[in-house]
Amino acid sequence: MPRLGVDLPAIRILSLLAVLPTVCAAPYDPATAATEATTSGGATANIRAGDVTIAPGGLSTFRVYLDNGQPPAIVGTENELAWETPFEVFGCTVNPDIDRTASGFFFFPAGCMTDSSCESLRSLVLSFSNVDPIPDGSELYSCSIRADQSAEPGEYPISCSNPGAADPRGTPVAIQCVDGLIRVEQPTPTPTHTATWTHTRTPTRTNTPTPTSTPTPTHTPTQTDTPTWTYTPTFTPTATHTPRIVRISAGDTIGPPGGQARVTVLLRTAGLTTIATANDLMLDPTLFEITPSACRLEIDLDKTLTVNLTDPPDTSGNLRAFVQSPTNNRAIPDGPIYSCLIEILPTTLPGTYPIVVRQASAFGSDGLALPLVESRNGALTVSIVGSGCAGDCDSDATVTIAELITAVNVALGQAAVQSCVGADSNRNGAVAINELVAAVRAALDGCN
After folding, report:
1. Are 36 and 164 in contact (CB under 8 A)?
2. Which of 68, 147, 236, 387 might form a disulfide with 395, Cβ 3.0–4.6 angstroms?
3. Contact indicator for 381, 432 with CB cutoff of 8 Å
4. Domains delineated in the chain
């Protein structure tokens, strides 16, 4: 298999914007490495969604920026954006000035671009050949936004979540996400010019006598039929409301027989205020063990994670988890809410096994259960094949351009993590931006 990096100019002409168009596919359940990312002095970098002003029925553009006031350098980013139903977001493009030609965008939920019902997007901003730092204050990407004609004047959030960043070596960089605003304003009416009438004195006409008066013929008017107007009513169609569905899902993960794997449970609110969640998590107890003490909270909102074994009491593969607080009604953002460490029994054969999520519930700010909540299962892959080289999908100690594309597909949710286990360096069932940058470095410099 040819080594990547021998012919660097050939790499630079590759643009994943052609390979990975903006599409709508199956929803992606991202896990995050943000809890592992540290920098001296804490998180100082921000991915910032800009503000935009738009009129009802209007079209505009909003932009997303990187604010990185001090080192470490950042060469790639990831984040998710969500918006409310009166708006349609589409046509996202990376800023060409930062030369990140492998960037991609993914819209949710499935099929949303066919009927303009997308509720959120996931972005990856990176390059397969350029590991120079992105300048502070740079625009990362921009998206077109259209307001529905029925949008009421006011302010609406552009919610930014699940941020990630990496330095030139593929090390995670602590970074925060800053929300933007959509301001809906009625357009200022154009002033209409009103003519002012000026009275002009008309001179008095003096009649001059005429010696002979010639009679003027009189015309008989022709009767003209007066048209009769018929009123035709105009019917205005009623807009169809698309219901918003909260989703609680398990991510995919991977581990060896006799080893461990961490599964992350994720929440997608569809823009609905969600202050608490509940769900069951189930695995085959003859192959895996999972205990309440092996679970941890993944959000920093002063919430409490309560995990108990479900019936029967001796089952070590079925859990019931509650994320809640009796005093804190702050909304839980989209993204990971908790995770659990799974023990894979040594006798478990290689293969892919379901992580079942059921009895999913979510609760609004009034304490009542939200009416539409769905669950989505994850998968645990038991594998005896591994690679010490980031992005090496087939374990041959080289990283090719095809493997980089596969890794990006996994990060965007277009491919399962099982298609490139080598890209998931920390074996958490997802591919983060730092793992992609590490794979790019391995492709350019070779596997060490």
Report:
1. no
2. 387
3. no
4. 8-187 (2.60.40.680)
